[in-house]
Amino acid sequence: HSTNVTAVMGNLPSGAAICTTIPDILYLPELVFGGLVWILVACTLVVPANPQGWVMFVSVFCFVMTFIWMLVFACGGHRNRSGWAAADFLYHGIAAFFYLSASVALAKVTLDMKDGSDFQNYQLDISAVVFSYAATLLYFIHTILSAIRWKSF
């Protein structure tokens, strides 16, 4: 069974192959959902500043780092396969943990806004919570698949 997974996931891709291989195909949805969290939280009143500041940091950090990571893979800047596979697993694990903590904090802030008079910001925050948990799930799945790929080297 592990040979089937390895055959599907293959080696570390480069170029356009990152859009067709598992788990690298998850880069684009991670960027989309992470970008939506960033935009939606930025559109609301960032109140309270903490933990909303953490949510903004996580969404911007993960968006920028995922984009850079995707470019490194697309440009073929990952010659040492085993080291890059381990780094890919480590980065996505950290991103999943960051997004989980940001999602929980954002959900708490959103629940606290429920009885407030600013219904538009409440709706934006609800959308941000949904996309934040979706990004968390994508990063978590990417972490698991990256770990499988790393262990197959």
Automatic annotation (TrEMBL):
Main location: membrane
PROSITE patterns listed in its UniProt record: MARVEL
Pfam families in alphabetical order: MARVEL (PF01284)
Membrane topology label: Multi-pass membrane protein
Single GO MF descriptor: structural constituent of myelin sheath
Keyword Transmembrane helix on entry: yes
Subcellular location field: Membrane
Cross-referenced InterPro entries: MAL, Marvel, MARVEL-CKLF_proteins
PANTHER family xref list: MAL, T CELL DIFFERENTIATION PROTEIN A, MARVEL-CONTAINING POTENTIAL LIPID RAFT-ASSOCIATED PROTEIN
Name of the protein this chain belongs to: MARVEL domain-containing protein
